[in-house]
Amino acid sequence: MKADLVQYTEAHRGYPEQAPPDLERQDLANLSLNGAVLCGANLEDANLEDAALMDANLSRAILRGASLIWASMGGVCLEGADLRRATLSWACMSRANLKGADLREATMDVARLEHADLRGADLRGANLEWADLRGANLEGARLEASDGLPATSLVGTDLSTAVLHNATLSGAIYDARTRWPGDFNPTAAGARKQP
Q1: pTM
Q2: Is 5's pLDDT higher than 70?
Q3: Do the beta carbons of residue 140 and residue 160 sit within 8 Å?
Q4: Left, alpha or beta for 48 (phi > 0: left; psi -120 to 50: alpha)?
């Protein structure tokens, strides 16, 4: 399957309208798919641990329950992707496009999301403990009842239109550049301002 997938991605780099293969529950650990075009691919419960997906296009992909632990995903496009219950612990997702992605109940502890675009993403119930969200854009993101932003770096992050009702911010770190919703009090929610 891995060889077939590599051949598929090489043959279809310029043809995102082609239907990708069904990769549900496939073991794709350690596979290099940098720049791959897998729009709408079914990767439900797939093992993508330590995979290289830099600058890959996985828009509208189904990654429910997928394991992406330690995956290298800088610049990946996951716009509108379904990542419910996915495990993204320690994943490097700097500059990732996660606009409108469904990340409900995803495990994203210690994930690197610097300058990621999370506008309109659904992060309800997600665990973002120790995640690095420096410079990330969370406009319109849903974080209410999130399991964790404890010890998360929100330095320079835009949360101005994020929905933060009942989100856990204990120990989250922010600075003067962090933008909050109008009447939201980050200190009262447990966040700490960086000196």
Answers
A1: 0.86
A2: no
A3: no
A4: alpha
